[in-house]
Amino acid sequence: MFGMAAVTRVSGCLCTASSLLLRGRPSSPSLLKPAFIFYSSRLLSSRTMDNLLINDSKYAWLKELGLSSHNYGVYYGKNWCGSGELVTSYCPANNQPIAQVTQGNEADYEHAIAATKEAWNVWADIPAPQRGEIVRQIGEALRKKIELLGKLESLEMGKILPEGIGEVQEFVDIADYAVGLSRMFAGHVFPSERKGHVLLEQWNPLGTVGIITAFNFPVAVYGWNASIAMVTGNTILWKGAPSTPLTSIATTKIIQSVFEANNLPGAISSLVCGGADVGTLMAKDERINLMSFTGSTEVGKKVALMVHERFGKCLLELGGNNALIVNEDADLDMVVRSALFACAGTAGQRCTTTRRLILHEKVYDEVVQKLVKAYAQLPIGDPIEPGVLYGPMHSQQGVKLYLKTISDALNQGGKIEYGGKQLERPGNFVEPTIITGLAHNADVVMRETFAPIVYVLKCKSVDEAIVWNNEVKQGLTSSIFTKDLGNIFKWLGPKGSDCGIVNVNIPTSGAEIGGAFGGEKHTGGGRESGSDAWKQYMRRSTCTINYSKELPLAQGIKFE
């Protein structure tokens, strides 16, 4: 189930990647999804064990995050443990093994969820501002490790170091935001139609929030959920992506230190590293009051069905086939700089990456020419090294998806303006790619491909561009570059972009934490981070209090 047709080797046997549920941000729903290759350490030779990067003096800094050659991937307030599969995490920049992790199994999950539910009895009794103080301390602990944790993310996920550090900063920022929220979230008092009565609403925590995150943002997305969930009085059970277990473990160890320092149960924020078995258990478990899932649209739909079957609550952050529109009056230098980041940043592996670049016919040739020149100057290399702006894809399966998609685009009439090839070097490096010549509704354009490929389309007007923006199944983020106020407000209005994020004169990617993050349609409808996203982590009660000696009924009903 949770089908991905790619084949993965685990514990010496071949199985479909569908058996490794919930592994990454969305990819094309009609193509093979990026499946991440794990090799059981039971299959690794002693020589390979010696060659783990963590044992190389160059990577000794990993041990400052509490990591070792072998790590346990389960934590629920006692010692670290794990009885599941023994897997190896690989560096996408060179495909060398970093370290090993024993994941959790069903028994580990049962212990973890029981401890997490028990911890809620303590956590829910703590006043919200005091919970906010704990989250503030978590933010401070992250600040102290921001360089190291960002470096680990760069090593294990493959994004460039400034982005890795920036992602940890995003967790710090949302922790700061949550601290303020802990003194502000509130219901309302409404006028009652009955004399001597008060009508109000009360917000209470849901209980336990399950969080499943993706490989491409292994820290920030967890931070969005965890910070808000904790200050609103919930406990947490987290399953990170199977291909970034070291980042999940290191992040949890930082949080663990804060709870221990405050003599609080560590199971307030539990972790179970695992695959399909753990993900399925979480989705079906009635003890999880809210299931927050970040990943592909296809897998998200299956998660939602399992959660809704038990009448649970679901928060989905799924795919995005995002468009950046350029009108004829746009500042083209700003356009090119924005498109370079939005299309090629994180090697095209953001849910907010620009997949479609819709250019007005009057500026089409100039923008394509300038963008090709910018791509040619993009520094490619080891993402940890200074000055590098473009690193590897996260997995070998992602490279295969990239190559297959380019083949499909060419077969459908596309023309490669730049890129289109795998780079001949160690690691999962491919060229960032610009493709022109395709119809706006070509099959390959209409599907999201989680790779650094952008399709450039030529339009005649903003109205036509808006129609094209809205015709795909997903509705995550969008942007228009124009100086025309009429077009700006048309874009923002009811007949404009149908996405959850609607930008003007900035890229499609790079959202701030103060606004709600999420999208419409097949993106799932969930909202995380700022604004009133906190409401999704709480239950609302409408309360009527009679402080009189009379018993009037609403609507003036007499029952005598």
UniProtKB/TrEMBL annotation:
Active site: 317
Span of domain Aldehyde dehydrogenase: 86-541
Top-rank EC class of the record's enzyme: oxidoreductase
Swiss-Prot/TrEMBL keywords: NAD, Oxidoreductase
GO molecular function terms listed in the Swiss-Prot or TrEMBL record: aldehyde dehydrogenase (NAD+) activity
Listed CDD domains: ALDH_F7_AASADH
Cell membrane in keyword set: no
EC number(s) per entry: 1.2.1.3
One Pfam family linked to the record: Aldedh
Family under the similarity heading: Belongs to the aldehyde dehydrogenase family.
Classification via PANTHER family: ALPHA-AMINOADIPIC SEMIALDEHYDE DEHYDROGENASE
Subunit structure: Homotetramer.
Protein name per Swiss-Prot or TrEMBL: aldehyde dehydrogenase (NAD(+))
Organism: Acanthosepion pharaonis (Pharaoh cuttlefish)
